[in-house]
Amino acid sequence: MASVLGRSVPKPEKQSPRFEDVARQELAVLYRVALRLTHSAEDAEDLVSQTLLNAHRAWGSFDGSYPRSWLIKILKNEFLTQRRKRGSAGNVSIDSIEEPSDEGFWEEVSWSAVGENILRELDRLPEEYRLAVALCDVEEMSYEEAALSLDIPVGTVRSRLFRGRRLLRARLVHMVEDSGRES
Amino acid sequence: MKHHNEDGPPCGHMEGLLNQAADGSSRGLKLWYAINHAARCTGCGNYLRRLRETVGRLHSATKEMPPTDVLNRLEAAIPREEGIPR
After folding, report:
1. Based on the domain organization, do A109 and A81 belong to the same domain?
2. Within-domain flag for B61
3. Contact: B57, A133; criterion CB under 8 Å
4. CATH code: domain of residue A146
5. Is B14 exposed, middle or buried (0-12, 13-18, 19+ CB in 10 A)?
6. What is the domain count for chain A?
7. Domain count of the fold of chain B
8. pLDDT, greater one: A11 or A73
């Protein structure tokens, strides 16, 4: 109770958001991130549906901050659980991939070609880098929000993002070089 | 100021600062230092320009909405239960 001029007045209650409103607002982002993870529209839809169920169960313990990060974290955990059950292979290391020279790269390639291919090349990045780039550059989340989503330190987000960008650019350079050889 | 990478990759200590300058996450002194360095160092200047182009393309190329039928099914899949405390 707050006191105004000696009289007690009821403090206005802060309205808690409803789960369905929060979920509806994040559906498109969840679907895009699911697509980045699964590479399949059908699997992405299933993954988002299961994420919504899991999130609904956990809604009571959610503290209300960064709902997008919270939902993406649940989505990622569900994806990992499904993959473990299926026994799928893990990531490919990028340590052995060299970054080629890209002198004149952006002058050679047309923007429309990059627009069409950048998503495909993004989807070919190893998962940890793909997710960092997808969250920070595609969904424009802050490093802190991405760190919450991925459950890793902010510094790790930075290093994965920077390497992911470097690798993405390298792959676009390869793409341009390959198309130049073919024509 | 001496720079070692006039035409090659960015100076080793600059990659993080240039990335943060490219995506707009740095402010103040860090941003000023990155921009100032890139203006004087050919390698870092090229690197920053390419990074901005890459990040800019990612921002603009990939904001597509799910197909309407998918969105409708996902909306229908949202559990609706009143009175769940948070």
Report:
1. no
2. yes
3. no
4. 1.10.10.10
5. buried
6. 2
7. 1
8. A73
- Same-domain check for residues A43 and A80: yes
For residue A24, tell me if it sits in a domain.
yes
A111 and A177 share one domain: yes
CA distances from B58 to A73, A102, A121, A140, A142 (A): 22, 18, 11, 9, 15
Contact call for residues A36 and A131 (beta carbons, < 8 A): yes
Domain that holds residue A174: 105-182
Pair A54, A64: CB distance under 8 Å: no
The confidence band for A170, taking pLDDT boundaries of 50, 70 and 90, is confident
Interface list for chain A against chain B, based on CB atoms closer than 8 Å: 16-17, 19-20, 23-24, 27-28, 31-32, 41, 45, 48-49, 52-53, 56, 59-60, 62, 64, 99, 102, 105-106, 111, 114-115, 118-119, 122, 133, 136-138, 140, 142-143, 158, 161-162, 165, 168-169, 172
Taking CA atoms, what residue in A is nearest to B51? A165
Position A9 scores a pLDDT of 53
Q: List the one residue out of A90, A86, A88, A71 whose CA is nearest residue A32.
A: A71
pLDDT at A94: 42
Q: How far apart are the CA of A39 and the nearest CA of chain B, in angstroms?
A: 14
Interface of B with A (CB under 8 A): 9, 15-16, 19, 23, 25, 49-51, 53-55, 57-66, 70-71, 73-75, 77-81, 84-86
Does residue B17 fall inside a structural domain? yes
Q: Is the dihedral of CA A93, A95, A96, A98 positive or negative?
A: positive
Residue A178 and residue A123 share a domain: yes
pLDDT for res B46 = 87
pLDDT, one tens digit per residue, over A26-45 is 999 999 999 989 999 999 99
- Any domain includes B82: no
